[in-house]
Design a protein that fits this description.
globular, 147 residues
Length: 147
């Protein structure tokens, strides 16, 4: 039996490796849950766990990790980006759009800088970011209201 501190080491690397696996598109959350269990108060692990929950389309779980993060740390761009993505997955696109605008995360560049999912998952992020921001375009909103 190893030292518990040693057992918790490297979880961020394991999650980053899973995110970087081009063949993997789901199943991130169980790994993240293990990491959170091993390192429940770690800022990086909590944000990676929220990202894993979003990849697996569990926005409620992502919000739990983000709430835990916000109780211990000052929310910054990564927190706000993940929060907006979770809101959008809950079909609260207007709130997600407002949050992205307020935090100046409306450009692909700024969003990628804050995104902990890695470069390989950039298409995933950009697709969701564009869907959120399209909601605020007048033609889209007018069409949606009349339909």
């Amino acid at each position: 039996m190893g030292d518990p501190a040693d057992d918790s080491a490297g979880w961020d690397k394991k999650i980053f490796a899973a995110f970087g696996d081009r063949e993997r598109w789901t199943g991130f959350l169980p790994l993240a849950e293990e990491a959170v269990q091993a390192r429940p108060g770690d800022a990086v692990i909590l944000q990676l766990a929220a990202t894993a929950a979003l990849f697996d389309e569990h926005p409620e779980r992502a919000l739990v990790f983000l709430k835990r993060f916000s109780k211990r740390y000052v929310p910054e761009k990564t927190y706000h980006l993940l929060h907006a993505l979770a809101l959008a997955q809950q079909n609260k696109v207007g709130a997600a759009c407002t949050l992205l605008q307020r935090e100046a995360l409306t450009s692909h560049y700024e969003a990628m800088r804050a995104f902990p999912g890695g470069w390989i998952r950039r298409d995933w992020l950009i697709d969701r970011l564009d869907r959120i921001l399209d909601w605020n375009r007048p033609a889209k909103r007018k069409r949606a209201a009349s339909g």
